[in-house]
Amino acid sequence: MLFLMTYVFTRRFLPKYGDRTVDQMVQAARSGKQNIVEGSADGVTSIESELKLLNVARGSIQELREDYEDYLLSRRLTVWTAKHPRFDMMLRYCREHNQLSDYEPFFEKWNAEEMANIGITLCRMVDKMMMSYQKKKEEEFLSEGGIRERMTAARMNYRANQRETIDQLTREVNALKQENVMLKRKVGERGWR
């Protein structure tokens, strides 16, 4: 959603040629989205890779937020803070709506100030969610380790189980050998009749 909104924002409010901000904003929004997707996929096998990609995504989202803020400040438009009369309503809307279909109808209706402030708010919300998720993953990594640690633990557990099985079988074989020796003695004492 943030990527598509940024794409429309740059198309509507920035010049088509000669302004590097267009490429920077679109690429930051795309990079944020793609690194979240890639990190999520990599997280299946490597928490470490997932955390690295999420850090890249956070950096991109923070860069995008800065670009929206710079846009507003450079054009003497208002960055909405908690004191702004529309801030609470905007924040509530963003908290309660997280689907593209909730925002897309407004892409061509919002003015630059409205759209940039929504973009800033969404960037902050995505960053906050990613920080919480990263913290959870870091705790998981510390307690469970990454894939290498879990694979090593599994191998060591497998080997310990093998060693235990071998030791048990060795004890049984030794017991059978002793029983065999004892039975041979008994047979030798009685003889085969």
Characterization of this structure:
The protein is an all-alpha fold and 193 residues long. The protein has two domains: 2-144, no CATH class; 146-193. The chain has seven helices and no strands. Helix 1 (2-13) packs antiparallel against helix 2, helix 1 (2-13) packs antiparallel against helix 6 (112-144) and helix 3 (47-74) packs antiparallel against helix 6 (112-144). The mean pLDDT is 89.
- Mean pLDDT equals 89
Content of β-strand: under 5%
How many individual β-strands?
0
Termini gap: 94 Å
Provide the low-confidence segments as ranges. none
The structural domain count equals: 2
Order of helices and strands: HHHHHHH
Number of helices, where a helix is a run of at least 4 consecutive DSSP H or I residues: 7
What coarse outline follows from CA principal-axis ratios? rod-shaped
